[in-house]
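Re: your question from the hallway

Yes, I did run it. Sequences:
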Amino acid sequence: MNGIKVVLADDHALVRDGIKALLEDQAGIDVIAEASDGKEALQVIKTNKPDVLIVDIRMPEMNGIEVVKNITANYNDIKTLVLSMHDSEEYVVQSIQSGADGYLLKGASKEEFLKALNKIASGGKYFTGDVSAIIMNNFVNGASAASLKQNAEVKQLPFKLTKREKQILGLVLELKNNKDIAEELNISKRTAEVHRFNLMKKLEVSNLKELTEKAKAYQLV
Amino acid sequence: MNGIKVVLADDHALVRDGIKALLEDQAGIDVIAEASDGKEALQVIKTNKPDVLIVDIRMPEMNGIEVVKNITANYNDIKTLVLSMHDSEEYVVQSIQSGADGYLLKGASKEEFLKALNKIASGGKYFTGDVSAIIMNNFVNGASAASLKQNAEVKQLPFKLTKREKQILGLVLELKNNKDIAEELNISKRTAEVHRFNLMKKLEVSNLKELTEKAKAYQLV
DNA sequence: TTAAAATTAAGTAAAAATACTTAGTTTTGT
DNA sequence: ACAAAACTAAGTATTTTTACTTAATTTTAA
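Structure:
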């Protein structure tokens, strides 16, 4: 009864059902819940704490990477395995940076999939062989991009934002409203409001337009 | 032993394995072979005559529609069930015309999938509910040039924005609020509100984030 | 020249955001 | 370990926005 508890998040019901059937044929793996979009995934996880969340990248409402970020930030006992059904190489690095414990490309076989799942559940990491090449490539490019940043002239602000404020600013800049931000961060709407209020006050702005402009000007994100 | 013999063609090994697991849990269904691209599917069918070929549309080498065409032309005892894992409405009509016996969109549940498979195996046709709407739409649009002229009560297209609405959408996307938009255009705040309201309704969105996303997706500005 | 479509804007009830304040908890830095 | 800082979230009053409807003008196209 203490098998690996899995939550499946994928907007393709058939894929979900398929993977579920595949997993449930294995002893020691239980699919305890499912979600058909990113937001639902976060909701589901609140009540059904799995050992591993298997999550597709492309989903409506909130994509898999956002989901992984959220889980990394809010739960440290839930592992994440990202599935990319499509050849989206551009997301590989992102999802690794978001704290994913594993990444499988579409070509993965059943065997590889189960191997990855078991490894991740026992605290390990699993990334497809193909992925390492992608990471290498990106590392080279990423390093140059990062070093260029130092030379850029960035204005200095007379105040500093807290970690949470920066995080919320990021979501605000994505045009998310307080309700959605609150849901995403598992805090109350009132708290999100407070953070936004403090942000506006610190940046001395009075509306969203000014906020986004100032945030961009000062490269706060 | 005379269950439904199925061949699966999908380039995603995981999806294939998943669906296989799902099908093999059912009595009376045997997955006798698999293929990971269109050409392979045709090869496989030469030696393993299935009752039904379940085929994904998007595949390398040869897409699902070509495969269905080929089968329709060369075998009259092999049924075909097209799976569209993606929301490719444009292929629905094509694959029906190619002689597919069934079509399922990504949203299909396990139950619907099995229902479809059984129906098709016994000589019937199965198309998702969603698909009928797509066909209708396609029919209407195809015939619209000639026949819609007579009908006075033509429904509004998903969305057509007026000049003013486009103008206001532009300002909304600059993150301006209704008060500022009103001032800029010398109209009342209430009017700006109405325009924004109509925009949201036409685009079927409920918040700024969705509005900006949809506007970008449809390149409305 | 008409009818249809577009633009304008007020009215209304309900929902949400704003602008705070207070205050309990948690995290952190020394 | 202890205070400061950060995070949380409720309360409250005010202002806005939302989600409509109705309806008066103005513009546009057949």
